[in-house]
Write a structure and sequence with these properties.
2 copies of one chain form a homodimer. With 233 residues, chain A is mostly helical. Chain A contains 7 helices and no strands. In chain A, helix 1 packs parallel to helix 3, helix 1 runs antiparallel to helix 4 and helix 4 packs parallel to helix 6. The longest helix of chain A has 38 residues. Chain A is elongated and about 70 Å long. Chains A and B meet through helix 2, helix 3, helix 5, helix 6 and helix 7 of A and helix 2, helix 3, helix 5, helix 6 and helix 7 of B.
């Protein structure tokens, strides 16, 4: 490659790298706005979240295409190839976080559009705060190619799962006490599930960063341990 | 490339191609067995599904690594590159179908391990049959690089979504009639959701095959139409 080509290649890599961060920022805002709309009943905000999802989908398609172009034209190797593969995987998870934001916004809109004024009887803010923190940390790890937050993110994921289970137990109690709340409680249950999924996808992103930095695939570490080997040996 | 290298390259591409089909077959069996165990209460079968999931995870990691190797060593272009990218994406969705099978099996095990004998009061078989048919059709499309089933799979996906909504309505009725059934009904609701997700992921695989065959990215077609353009233009 000539020096000029190298420079172009670097620019292209930087473009997909910053694309992930831009997409991540957008997705984070979508989740935060969906939760804000759920709390305040701001229907306009919820509708903006629902309509905004397609921008994230388009961003995924765009970045995916750029990654394909880089592989075809530049034949990246080693850490450059790992960056491209990490981007391809990370944007798929970010797109799905976008879907979860949309689901939350749609459910919140239904809840706040009913005949009776709706107020949330379970506290989702702790789990939601954790999931958003996981997302930010995962993006930050990617930005700095630094895996020091990974162990904490894995721990937070367990906490988010526990929050979901706690919410489910609370909702079951409410539903048993007053069966008229069943429909609304199910909407809230699916919102809690969506928050849990935001955590799962953020954890995935953090795991891809380990692959990016160290070349190790750390997904399903428990599966691999059960098998008594390493996947790449 | 020498003729020898070409042959090796072909062998490698064939290996990842058949790897997807093998993984797909395994995943299909997992879903079918989980549903069978739900119906019959065969706890041994359900436990085999739960334990079997890690094999699918390992298969994904293995195939993913093989795809990375092919890109690094062979620098594939055009349809060969599209095959590798399709494999990388398809195995991620197949792995998630495996997760859904495991979720169904775990919920079924809890339902059949309660003090009271459990029998399913909603009929999930129609939606489950559709979702499994979508999975088989998507894998078949991939095997034959043939997109003729794609439109039907998209239609079936809508039907599976409608089945889920119908099941949810039925379950709400049961829960309101007899609040003691709420916990079990929620387990069944999450099983119905998992079936719907099997449909979603199968649809994704079918969409990747369109990319493989035609080089068009047809995901989020509605988003793109809303934006008034094509993603790659």
């Amino acid at each position: 490659m000539t020096e000029h080509t190298y420079k172009q290649f670097d620019t292209e890599l930087e473009k997909i790298r910053s694309g992930v961060l831009r997409m991540g920022g957008l997705v984070e805002t979508q989740v935060a706005n969906a939760l804000e709309g759920l709390k305040t009943g701001n229907i306009g905000l919820l509708e903006r979240v629902i309509e905004g999802d397609h921008r994230i989908n388009l961003l995924e398609i765009e970045l995916d295409e750029e990654c394909n172009q880089i592989i075809a034209k530049r034949q990246p190797a080693a850490v450059d190839l790992r960056l491209v593969m990490t981007v391809i995987k990370a944007i798929a998870d970010l797109e799905r976080i976008g879907d979860e934001a949309k689901k939350i916004a749609k459910a919140a809109k239904r809840l706040h559009s009913g005949e009776m004024p709706f107020s949330l009887r379970v506290d989702l803010s702790y789990g939601a705060g954790l999931a958003l923190d996981m997302l930010r940390s995962a993006l930050d790890s990617f930005a700095r190619a630094d895996i020091s937050a990974w162990a904490r993110i894995e721990k937070q994921d367990e906490e988010v799962d526990a929050c979901f289970k706690g919410t489910m137990r609370q909702l079951i109690t409410f539903m048993m006490e007053d069966p008229r709340t069943i429909s609304n409680s199910l909407e809230v249950l699916f919102i809690a599930k969506a928050i849990e999924r935001v955590g799962d996808h953020s954890k995935n992103v953090a795991e891809y960063v380990v692959f990016l930095v160290q070349g190790r695939d750390v997904r399903y570490a428990k599966s691999v341990a059960a098998e008594g080997g390493t996947p790449q040996s």
